[in-house]
Amino acid sequence: xxxxxxxxxxxxxxxxxxxxxxxxxxxxxxxxxxxxxxxxxxxxxxxxxxxxxxxxxxxxxxxxxxxxxxxxxxxxxxxxxxxxxxxxxxxxxxxxxxxxxxxxxxxxxxxxxxxxxxxxxxxxxxxxxxxxxxxxxxxxxxxxxxxxxxxxxxxxxxxxxxxxxxxxxxxxxxxxxxxxxxxxxxxxxxxxxxxxxxxxxxxxxxxxxxxxxxxxxxxxxxxxxxxxxxxxxxxxxxxxxxxxxxxxxxxxxxxxxxxxxxxxxxxxxxxxxxxxxxxxxxxxxxxxxxxxxxxxxxxxxxxxxxxxxxxxxxxxxxxxxxxxxxxxxxxxxxxxxxxxxxxxxxxxxxxxxxxxxxxxxxxxxxxxxxxxxxxxxxxxxxxxxxxxxxxxxxxxxxxxxxxxxxxxxxxxxxxxxxxxxxxxxxxxxxxxxxxxxxxxxxxxxxxxxxxxxxxxxxxxxxxxxxxxxxxxxxxxxxxxxxxxxxxxxxxxxxxxxxxxxxxxxxxxxxxxxxxxxxxxxxxxxxxxxxxxxxxxxxxxxxxxxxxxxxxxxxxxxxxxxxxxxxxxxxxxxxxxxxxxxxxxxxxxxxxxxxxxxxxxxxxxxxxxxxxxxxxxxxxxxxxxxxxxxxxxxxxxxxxxxxxxxxxxxxxxxxxxxxxxxxxxxxxxxxxxxxxxxxxxxxxxxxxxxxxxxxxxxxxxxxxxxxxxxxxxxxxxxxxxxxxxxxxxxxxxxxxxxxxxxxxxxxxxxxxxxxxxxxxxxxxxxxxxxxxxxxxxxxxxxxxxxxxxxxxxxxxxxxxxxxxxxxxxxx
Length: 810
Fold this sequence. Notes:
Elements: H1 2-8, H2 10-38, E1 50-55, E2 68-69, E3 84-91, E4 96-100, E5 103-105, E6 110-113, H3 117-120, E7 125-127, E8 139-143, H4 144-151, E9 160-165, E10 173-181, E11 194-197, E12 209-215, H5 221-235, E13 244-249, H6 253-256, H7 269-300, H8 302-310, H9 315-342, H10 344-348, H11 358-375, H12 378-382, H13 401-431, E14 440-443, H14 448-451, H15 454-461, E15 467-473, E16 484-489, E17 499-504, H16 509-512, E18 517-520, H17 530-540, H18 546-559, E19 565-570, H19 571-577, E20 589-592, E21 603-609, E22 624-627, E23 635-640, H20 645-659, E24 668-669, H21 670-677, H22 679-712, H23 715-723, H24 728-762, H25 773-799, H26 803-809
Parallel strand pairs: 6-11, 8-10, 17-22, 19-21
Antiparallel strand pairs: 1-12, 1-13, 2-12, 3-6, 3-12, 4-5, 4-9, 7-10, 8-11, 9-10, 14-23, 14-24, 15-23, 16-17, 16-20, 18-21, 19-22, 20-21
Helix pairs in contact: 1-9, 2-7, 2-9, 2-11, 2-22, 7-13, 7-22, 9-11, 13-22, 13-24, 13-25, 17-18, 22-25, 23-26, 24-25
């Protein structure tokens, strides 16, 4: 009987089933995502007492704090502050070569750490003695997947691993596997595959170190922070690291820490709020449709209910019938929603990684059953049902005005915010340097021996026609590395010390990224060579033979063309210098006061470029001076033919391995690098785009059903109007007007709400779009067109009907 009822009214039931199913799918997806994001680092039993130190350079205005601190600041933490029970240091070196079982490997998830690591953190150890780990020098703990990759077995205790660390030579050598740990859980804010030992008291001077503190249960955070600040201030000299900016709770790192040097891409509380809001919009629209169409279904079945009451049925009996009828379509909807949720990543190309327990699935399903089954009783509860067969409670389409207004208000707000997100992401992509970003290959963290061979490697790369251009830079795109030093420049007041950031590039950098000058020429001509740069650096080492090195440097300079240093400024540097016209900077003498004065000699400014936007868009562009120092260029860059990607990558790999067989070839595409930086924003954009589409679809379905129902009840009115001379077009416009005015009102309500949401989201970016009026107008017009198209077909069908037939029908 229930199935017959559904088939008889399949239009209403289909719309309701689809709406509930989509809402259920979105609820599952967002619930599992939010639950995971909120669970980061909760598995550590001491999580409430673990904090990470961050520092900030007050001279770099607008830059975020750094997640690590200078190594020299750590040792006093062990003995000078009673509130600190344990200190864990994590050092993440670049440019490492790992040799195990006669094979070479590389890993991005490699750290040096001390013996407190496994005392503070609860990462699961599969093999080894947790209490004694790292009490002896030259020990290493590896993950299960690393053990399988390196040795083909988890039984790796006692095996040897050799590591060569470019920037930490004292730690290179052989290490014995002392433990095998389980692979880090997904909800850890950092992942490690190899942990190499360092001594607690080992002074790794000036090396960037992530530092975690286990504090006493009874502690005063504010007092501890002030004590550490005061100690550092007393014991550091001018120009050395600044005091801490905060002690961040371990559980807050993933959602609230967004520093330039995070160990992995963190989440965002703003993202969670946006995703929850989007999911709530879909749910509310589905719920509104359900309640509206339930009322429509109730009016349709009202005569049957009255007959049942005449035959002795009570309101409770009617409620039971309605409640039971609702369970089957809700069940279909939950089944549909579950299938959609589990295939969501495939359908939407997202990365929500749907993973929900049976218990969570059960209670969410029960909540949906309860909400929508009880909602099916609302028409009965809000309508006075009598046994009078001649009386009908239907009040026309005005009964649904409020719900339709709310639906379209939510839909229009979703459209506006989606357009804003897309425009902002497009702005970000366009501001970053380089066209055809998917064809720009980055080879990061190049070892010294390959930096010295850059010219040879570049020449061999360019012998392949599928490789269009090759250059090099100080660091890879997407990073914001403050490397600021004072300078001297002709015409600039020397009495007030100012600083500029140094960024080293190879001469073809501008050509590869298609960067044009605002003034001057980007032709760098003769630049310093690596042998010359090595001599200049060795002078700075206060070598006993310093005079001899200076003599060699001068001789080398004379023999190699007597080049003059050339500097390029960006627009932000001009602001620091107080120069309005870029042309006024060209030809001025410039001296970058680097720690090795002989390396950056006095030269001249040859060009001014626009702000490079090489880093991320969350902070303002640094005032920057660009020069060519090949010794610093540890990132190689190649631009390839996008139509021959596979061939080009193979050529790059072959030429690399010819010159460096022991160091694996690693690469990334520029667009992938930036997409990883804006991971949260891309996720928000994809999810909100989908939610907006779902909102519009559900609103359209609801309007279609309600307008169809409304027009059925206006058949007599339409027939009378036509009999009195109204044309079909006049009747069409009259009926459409009723719905379009609701959309216009919804638009006026949605605009300020969407404006506030969009403005708040854009505040995360240092460079952002303007919230132009046309974004709002376009969204309103889109909603209006959709509404008109939704009701036009069935309205036109009713308006063109023969009035005799209409009156006969009535």
